[in-house]
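Input:
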Amino acid sequence: MGKAIKLTTTYNHPIEDVWEALTNKDAMSEWLMPCNIEPIVGHQFQFKTKSYPGFNGIVNCEILEVIKHQKLSFSWSGGSLKNTIVTFELKTNGTKTELNFEHTGFEGFFNKVIVSRILANGWFNKILIIQLPKYLTK
Amino acid sequence: MTDVFKAIADPTRREILLMVCNEPANVNTIADKFNMTRPAVSKHLKILEDNGLLIIQNSDKDGRQRNCYAQLGALKEIEDFIKQLEKFWNSKLNNLGDYLDKKNS
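Output:
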């Protein structure tokens, strides 16, 4: 389990086009989810998608950072996620554009606290060896 | 999904969880170890139990011995959740590529 979700992709398109697709609400609505994003710091917007038990289908967001053609960051709260942070960073790579995507801020979570402590205490293996098979065979 | 994050945000509850992960323990032992009153410990245990991180079972007939067992289902649930979320983003970033190809072809 990682501290964050990190993905890197390269698109065969200039940075301006990728930036437009990240910041235009019609574009974003098409490739991600219906939304009313505006690339203005403090702008609050929503993604609306299908609901399922435990998730009403709405993700509330607020723009946190905008650096034109470089960085877009917004908060992401929906379902069991509260105030997590989604960040898109762009870099020109010749005629292509490299996108570094991150979804972070799964606070209280595991990463920092539980996993690191379990690892530090050497209990992680114990849990895997003893507890997990018990759980799986129930 | 329940609020596992909140349940493990508290250091005492993390310690309790780590303690019973290692070995099931009864409520009195936990209270002694943390130098807390039984009601205070019970409050923490209830939160862990409500979030599926712990199972509390009576270990004798008159129910005086209450044993706590770590329940890792919730932890697995977190892991699965993150995996699902990563899949979601992976597929969306692929969509973005398709969108760009279509729009700018």
